[in-house]
Specification:
single chain, 458 residues, alpha/beta, 15 helices, binds pyridoxal-5'-phosphate
Length: 458
């Protein structure tokens, strides 16, 4: 008999979590104005809000914390981090920052000017924010297939090369770089193929442009290249990472994802001019160049996290857990963005709750139902998150309306996945009787999903 698959780690420390009753949860979610961001975490049983900074560090990472060098300048921990990043990416220059959006802020302060266009594949919301707040345009060139959640394709995060060529040809003067998000978070944690990264490089070279990778989940992207793309099965994750980055000029990184730490980020590049430009913004915004907003001990833990998470077994354990949850949903016939992404399952709320009108926010309705059913906290990635059109102030209903169930790294077991799937199935079984959603009582002008106050319409 073939031995079954099991995790590539064992557990050394546990953190108790508390179940609750449906009655308690109904009161709590009402007190939170039906917004899961407003729930105290103690009121959540299984927390799948995000995989950002919510992972478990290894014994080696905890040991590294004790060895961190807290020197203001020239910290040994910085050099450890720099050397790992150099080895994994080939980028010479490394600037730490306190998280991913800070890396964007520092680098884009140097690179983005009013009137610029920055093409990419479904820019992450903070990336878009840092582009738009500088009065530039984030131009989406994601392949159209990403919009059809039921289409099963291996690299749904890809850039559409024809769209990219067109925007480059028509706006050559307004574009200084292209940003490629690996994996494509917004499209459902979908990977970008090596072939696509090569093609992007070729097009960029033809127009004399540079390429940045928004690399929060680069290791998961490398895993998908290894397991799905012809010619990579025998390469290591580290070799694949190095090849991916060979097609880029620089990167921004949220280390809270594939860095396996709770807080941190960095910029890395092969170009001295970018490094010199970014330095001028790192020092006033983040801190001196050998810490950039991070503790020495956190840089030490990150150096080890990057090493560990570019080992196949660690990624295999993680991504198979996401796929395990997907297989449970398949059993129950629950529709999600196919195939399962690297870090999360994105349930297609329009297909699950066809009787809830879009004006009443189906994905938000499903998010609340899942919490009430099982104490599971997911997150709406849909019409509320999309905010209003800046000009017309109308709600934007043109994108997908999804419930994201995001899996923290090395935190939950497959038994927890079974609970999530069963809770979702119970909601799914009574989907036809769910006919009303929510009305907005109060909202902020931008990024309203964090603080929005809702009231039920039924
Ligand atoms: C999380 C994330 C960011 C922003 O990073 P923070 O560490 O949350 O500031 C940027 N891009 C992508 C793709 C991300 O997933």
């Amino acid at each position: 008999m073939e031995l079954p698959f099991a995790e590539s780690w064992k557990i050394k420390m546990v953190e108790p979590i508390r179940k609750s009753t449906r009655e308690e949860r109904e009161k709590w979610i009402k007190d939170a104005n039906y917004n899961v961001f407003q729930l105290p975490a103690d009121q959540v049983y299984i927390d799948c809000l995000t995989d950002s900074g919510t992972g478990a560090m290894s014994d080696r990472q905890w040991a590294a914390l004790m060895m961190g060098d807290e020197s203001y300048a020239g910290s040994r921990s910085f050099f450890e981090l720099r050397d790992v990043v150099r080895r994994l990416t080939g980028f010479e220059y490394v600037i730490p920052t306190h998280q991913g959006r800070a890396a964007e802020n520092v680098l884009f302060s140097h690179l983005v000017k009013a009137g610029d266009i920055v093409p990419g594949n479904s820019h992450f919301d903070t990336t878009k924010g840092h582009i738009e707040s500088r009065k530039a345009v984030a131009y989406d060139c994601t392949v159209d297939e990403a919009k059809d959640t039921q289409l099963e394709l291996p690299f749904k995060g890809n850039v559409d090369i024809a769209k990219l060529e067109k925007v480059l040809a028509e706006n050559t003067d307004k574009i200084s770089f292209i940003i490629v998000t690996i994996t494509n978070n917004t499209a459902g944690g979908q990977p970008v193929s090596m072939a696509n990264l090569k093609d992007i490089r070729k097009v960029a070279d033809r127009y004399g442009k540079r390429v940045i990778f928004d690399s929060a989940r680069f290791a998961e992207n490398a895993y998908f290249i290894k397991t799905r793309e012809e010619g990579y099965a025998d390469k290591t994750i580290k070799e694949i990472s190095r090849e991916m980055f060979s097609y880029a000029d620089g990167m921004t990184m949220s280390a809270k994802k594939d860095g396996l730490v709770n807080m941190g980020g960095f910029i890395a590049t092969r170009h001295e001019d970018w490094y010199e430009g970014a330095k001028n913004y790192c020092i006033p915004f983040e801190g001196y160049l050998t810490y950039g907003g991070m503790n020495g001990r956190d840089m030490a833990a990150l150096a080890i996290g990057l090493e560990e998470n570019t080992e196949f077994d660690n990624l295999d354990t993680r991504i198979r857990q996401v796929q395990y949850l997907a297989a449970r949903l398949d059993e129950y016939g629950i529709p999600y963005q196919r195939p399962a992404g690297g870090h999360a399952i994105f349930v297609d709320a329009r297909l699950v709750l066809p009787n809830v009108p879009k004006e009443e926010f189906p994905a938000q309705t499903l998010t609340v139902e899942l919490y009430k059913e099982g104490g599971v906290r997911g997150c709406e990635i849909g019409y509320i998150l999309a905010d209003r059109d800046p000009v017309t102030r109308e709600n934007r209903f043109n994108g997908l309306d999804l419930l994201r169930i995001c899996i923290p790294r090395r935190v939950y077991t497959n038994n927890h996945m079974d609970v999530i799937a069963a809770a979702l199935k119970n909601v799914y079984d009574r989907r036809m009787s769910i006919t009303r959603g929510y009305k907005i009582e109060w909202e902020a002008e931008l990024m309203r999903h964090f603080t929005v106050k809702l009231s039920p319409l039924a």
